[in-house]
Amino acid sequence: MSTPLDNPYHDIPRRDPGVVMRLARMGASHQGRLSFMRILLRRMKAENWHFDVPLFDIDARGVGRAVYSAHGPERSYSLVLFANDLPPEKRSDRVIATEWDVTFTLFDGIPTADDITRLSQNVPKQEAGRVTQTELSVSRANRSVRLFDHVVDRLAKGQQPDPEKITDVGYLMRTTAVYGSGKLGAADREQIAERPEFSAPFQVEMLSVYLTRAFVLDLVEHLAWLRNPKQAVKLDPDLRRGFGIGNSTGLGMAPFLLNHPSLLNNWICAREEGLARVRSLAVATPEAVAKMRDLTLRAVVNADRWRTDHPVQQTRLATLKADLALLTAHLETADLFQDQPWNRLWLWAESSLGLEGQEQLAALVTEPYGALIDEMAHCMSADEAQTFRIDGAMPLAQVTQLIEQIYGWALDIDWAARDAQARVWYTSQEKLEPRLGERFDEPVAAYEQPLSPGRDVARAYKDLQTVDAGPVAEFLLCHPEHRHVIRRLQIVARCPYAEIHDNTISSDMMPIDLLRLKLSFFGAGHFDPRSDRWLRITMFGNAPFPHELANADPDSWSYPPLSDVPG
Amino acid sequence: MNWSLNELDAMARKAARGAGYSWGLAEEAGRATRWLAAAGLPGPMCLAQLLAAVDGADFKDFTPAVSAGRCTADSGALCPLLTGVALCDGALDYSPMQGLTLSNLSAPLLLLPFVAQTFGIQASGTQSSGVPTSERVRLRWAEVQIILAHGAVYLDGVVGDLTCAQAESVTLDPAPAEKSPKGVLLAPQSRAVIDVATRTCLEGFAQRTFAPATEASRLAGAGAGLSDND
Which of A115, A320, A462, B159 is deepest in the core (most CB within 10 A)? Predict the structure, then answer.
């Protein structure tokens, strides 16, 4: 029998790119069913992946090596790690660091002793080392000294750590970079993209981080036991699950969304399709409504546990809490069962909630509908080679028309104004990492990266006014300086969510908005900006550990359980 | 030491930009170099040669133009990147059936990826979407003949000519209908091998795209300054 839930067709359209692709809204994104961590755990659970630890050789100072393996239906992968005893003054989240508490690589298969020896000579050096195509990622992590020592001390004395302290930090170690896709000599994404387990984006990186979290929790228990074998205890399983793995992310990640337009489109399009499908449902079942209400209450707990010192995020967090209070009250009385209930709820939210609350709701309403949503995980990758070639036959009149349709917002900006062009994206010689400079105060304009599509389209538009009709190929022959942006225009014409509809070099642009969108697609939470251009997050908080996955719900962990609400 | 193709693509893109090409052309240089390496051909070496040759030139003088089946540029030499994208975009007055002669083409091997793209052939030997074609094309210069047919690449020739700095005359025309084209069928490669001199050259050009660091940019540019030992 067919039910409305089976119907993939819908009458509510996806949200307009002009609404969705604004930096302020991107900076209010939340994780959801299509976040890459959740795609990974759902797959590993469905396929009965199993996990083991073929090597764990760590001394009382925390120095040594270990291997954590994950076995899927066809292939195995191993996190190979090298642990260090880092002096406090060397502990830096910055890319300029040269040593870390632990360094990692995800190995394709099960490493031999020779592999481990080779990796031990390279992985601890990170950017200064080289890996090969049997390695899929390279990463590193540092201890959160606030929490790490406390947990080891308590466990060694036979006590559990202070839950309040766990909430304050959220993790025992923080990764500071996770490199994949050919970086430092690792395998290209193209080499593994055909494997079903890696067809969704960033599955290598998510698997690496998932196994890293498992190791870190094993490590504190191991160090406590080495310190005091007679008294030491293991972590209480519920308390243990509360630990995520931290990540510190900066400008290195920010240009990614601008550099991968068709990929960005596919992420957003999948998410928006999900929201449109749910909004289009004619009715909702009592089970779906109950789940949505329960998760909303858990989202309140999640917001209460979110810690940040940054004024911008503090304001946003206050908005989110106020929005969640309004939503909770509204859900108590609203009819959520019939007459397109989720669409009515959505329209109420658009006029009643701020951006944080709206985007939180966009994630929450899709939670009860795995059968409608989860299949979209297959649509989130992109073969960028397929969109690279320019259609040279496109008439200039069409080019002009497309610019006016898609980039009207950019044509409206006065690019001669200082504030409109205040920033320059450039790459530093020192670490070969993206940075953001002040165009009128620093000598960096000559090194500008092409990360301002709005301005560049406006420049091309101006030159288009000076030429006669003809194909764009002829225009490009005389104006090769517009080639990158004409390519981009043609991609965006096919992929409506490929472009950010905002000025990415203005004086008030905040890179953390770009970072938050990307990290929410990873599945991260508790965004904690440390400035306008880097932030810390927590990943896999409350998730089942590898040894628990077989008996756990792979989706229910993304909001904290209600039973944990402190007194 | 071998390289991932993504690493090569990124380095080639930066190097081309460092030598003065626009960002859009630099992207093409990255893709083209990667395509050649993925076909097992010395793309990185040819790019290094090209960049050394055009460094400091006015790129406007390299704009290709076709007259009576012959492609030339004001500078006297043709750039394979500018000529390649013009071919691929359809900006050149050229009919695939009649063919084209290119005069004084620098680093001629770099034209191959653009010919392949024009005819819808990927380095992996599969046909890419976009331009389905059953056509067989041939690219020839000196003692080199490369045939693109059946979605595959066949190479016949002399190594020295393959990587020559400039070819006086390059012809692009329909390949004769043969069951198995003459030459070696190129096998797809997943890694790039780059010799030290080539790497040094490309990295030198890429360096020009990086801004020298100052203490202020170290802190402000990345937004740090707080302690991380927490």
Answer: A320
